[in-house]
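Field reference: sequence -> structure
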Amino acid sequence: MIPNGKVALVICLGLVLVARACAQGAADHLTFEVASVKPAKHGNFSSMDGGPGTKDPGQFRAANMELSFIVMHAYGLDEDQLFRPAWMDRAGFDVVANVPPGTTKEQFRKMLQNLLAERFQMQVHHETRVVPVYELTVAKSGPKLKPAAQGGGADDFVPGSGLRRVNRDGFPILPPGRSNFACGHLPDGSYCTYRMWTMERLAQRLSSPTQAGAGRRVVDKTTLTGQYDFTLYFSPANGPDGEAPSIEQALQEQLGLKLVPSKASIDALVIDHAETPTEN
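Structure field:
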């Protein structure tokens, strides 16, 4: 016979294991209320916003966004943590997803992961790798950044096109007081506008060669803790015929920041399988 105390302990342990299994099962089935995924068919501009932690927590939107960047957003990754087929850096998608009220950031990421698994038939695994990195530091000349302005309002889109307006210098127009970014990738270089961005978030953005062009993971070492509004004109490949500055030159000349080479161990996500979905 098993003593009553041990029976109770076994039952309690069994209940704990069942509860954990149920919690894991629930997380595996977290989904958006409604979600649309379509291959992008318009424009040179890309953007992604909305979801928990933003001013529009009830809807997540990605416009003409590369699949690789959507995956990074879903798993909270930097560029060099994601090992994937080359087509994921070229294929842009429009995603609109309604997020249930009260959804946490962690739950939102799981929903996005589940959406990728369902619509793109995506399969992944994790492993540890040592990779070269850049440290983002303040240049000797000092930072050239303006504190984020307060304000609000809707994004400035061209009526009926789904594209944002640009100013006379070619940078996308975004309202102040709302954390967001938008880029225009044109023949002479990339024009990016950033609103209410931290240096940590800029370092994450710079980690993507398909987006900002540093070509490796970038770690924030600036010690700058505020939020800033700024623009950046650059070419990930040093610019066609030298028209646009390299990302290193642009950071130093336009923002007063510098990239310093280093190394780090990382947790990597490997894409084992993914397919292009049909429109839905």
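Note: Confidence is low (pLDDT under 50) at residues 16-23.
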